[in-house]
Design goal:
Elements (H helix, E strand, L loop, with lengths): L4 H4 L3 E2 H8 L3 H11 L5 E2 L5 E3 L1 H15 L4 H4 L4 H17 L11 H12 L3 H14 L2 H21 L5 H21 L8 E7 L6 H12 L3 E9 L1 H10 L4 E5 L7 H14 L4 E5 L7 H6 L3 E2 L3 H10 L3
Parallel strand pairs: 4-5, 4-6, 6-7, 7-8
Antiparallel strand pairs: 1-3, 2-3
Helix pairs in contact: 4-6, 6-10, 7-8, 7-9, 8-9, 8-10, 9-10, 9-11, 10-11, 12-13
Length: about 325
């Protein structure tokens, strides 16, 4: 089989690799020289260049070493073996809900994560969040660490106290952690299904990601559709996956008449028997439209957890 040239072409400079993987340039150099984890190419000016395959491998190495493994023990593994190992690590963290938590205090993890954002340290941010996933039940980690972290980042950015670079760096790490939760949890075959999305015109993703991660951790089959989905598509996925619940996140804008129309259309396409919940910072601005379709507004994580737990019975 011929490799995809886009995946193997050496085209990414080290600055891009640092941003995508969370590894520092110094760590990259040591890993390459001492362990030969990847073999970068060179530009005409002599600068190192990396392929998509290299970036994927380095991201996986970051994940498995953050989980506690020594680089010397995993550097020789194939990318497929690293992916399997990373998946096993994530599954062990998130599906073992019976394992007693090391500590139920979320503040140290939140403070450490905020410090990592301010210090422009994506590796430490991801490590802090992964430690929180081990020490805290998933709903607590999501509600008391990730949620407040996102709120703080948003507030700091809105007031000009956080640079766009720091905001984008932190957002990328947080997105990766929440996606890890969703992908790592293996629901029971008879688990209830939930479709998670934002209505058409809503492009802010993190509220939906939080819902998807919480649902996955609580043994729901999650169909995560991302942002700005037309009503008919949302309803069709709910029908095809046998999902009994649709969860929508609304953040911004808060005065878009299209949102009310999309909510009505989702109800029409999904039918009266499908439950719909709507959350996000902008949800209360559409309260009349939400109530008109018989949906429920959920403004706090404990409410969401209660709904998800009730759906298991």
């Amino acid at each position: 089989m011929i490799a995809n040239t886009t995946e193997t072409e050496k085209r990414h400079p080290i600055q891009v690799v640092v941003r995508r993987t969370g590894l520092t340039p110094d760590v990259l150099r040591v890993w390459e020289k001492r362990y030969g984890v990847v073999d970068p190419g060179r530009s005409q000016g002599g600068h190192r260049l990396y392929s998509d395959d290299d970036v994927e491998r380095l991201m996986l190495l970051n994940r498995v070493t953050t989980a506690g493994r020594r680089i010397s023990k995993v550097a020789g593994l194939t990318t497929e073996e690293l992916q399997s190992m990373a998946d096993e690590d994530a599954e062990a963290v998130f599906v073992s809900s019976e394992t007693p938590a090391v500590s139920l205090r979320s503040e140290p993890y939140l403070h450490a994560s905020l410090a990592a954002v301010n210090n422009l340290d994506p590796r430490e941010l991801e490590a802090s969040l992964m430690r929180a996933t081990v020490a805290l039940p998933a709903p607590v980690m999501i509600g008391e660490v990730v949620g407040p972290l996102l709120a703080s980042i948003g507030e700091e950015w809105a007031h000009g106290r956080l640079s766009p670079g720091k905001e984008h760096l932190a957002s990328g790490v947080i997105r990766r952690v929440l996606e890890t939760i969703m992908n790592a949890c293996a629901p029971d075959t008879d688990a209830p299904g939930i479709v998670v999305a934002t209505p058409a015109g809503q492009v802010h993703e993190f509220g939906a990601l939080l819902v998807g991660a919480a649902a996955a951790a609580l043994n729901w089959r999650v169909a995560y559709l991302g942002t700005s989905l037309p009503a008919q598509d949302v309803a069709e996925v709910a029908a095809s996956t046998g999902s009994e619940l649709i969860a929508l996140s609304i953040v911004y804008p808060t005065d878009d008449p299209q949102v009310a129309e999309e909510l009505r259309a989702i109800r029409e396409f999904a039918g009266a028997d499908t439950r719909i919940i709507v959350g996000g910072r902008g949800a209360l601005h559409y309260l009349d439209a939400i109530e008109a379709i018989g949906a429920r507004v959920v403004t706090r994580l404990p409410e969401l957890v209660e709904i998800l737990e009730e759906g298991q019975h």
